[in-house]
Amino acid sequence: MRLANQGGIYVVAGLGQLLLDWCVFVACSALGMPIVPANVFGRISGALLGFWLNGRFTFRDGHGARLGWRRFARFVALWSLLTVASTVLVAWVDARLGLQLAWAAKPLVEGGLAVVAFFLWRHIVYR
């Protein structure tokens, strides 16, 4: 599949993933959960949806879905690094500017990381 097609599908899948991630993050933190575990729970929920959507639709080959345990292991390793970056950035905004601005910053942080993630997923996870 060509890069432009993959990019378009990735954006649509990513918006759904981001919405789920953000909703879980906001709900957990609004209920009093500290920002770090709230962000991790949000990212886990989005990651599970994203792994399936991207393997099934975005990066599939002519033979079908690109899932499986090897790909999942690579996904988890890279996702963990991206989660550390996301959590540090969101926690920094929370500590300096407050919870409501952390809620607002979360989609921006995740959007920036999504650009990096696209190339990592394409060349390392779903190859």
UniProtKB/TrEMBL annotation:
Transmembrane region(s): 7-32, 38-55, 76-95, 101-121
Membrane topology, from the record: Multi-pass membrane protein
Domain of life: Bacteria
Keywords recorded for this protein, A-Z: Membrane, Transmembrane, Transmembrane helix
Compartment(s) where it occurs, according to its Swiss-Prot or TrEMBL record: Membrane
Single GO BP term: polysaccharide biosynthetic process
PANTHER family: PROPHAGE BACTOPRENOL-LINKED GLUCOSE TRANSLOCASE HOMOLOG (PTHR38459)
Family as reported in the entry's similarity comment: Belongs to the GtrA family.
Official protein name in the record: GtrA family protein
Annotated organism of origin: Luteimonas aestuarii
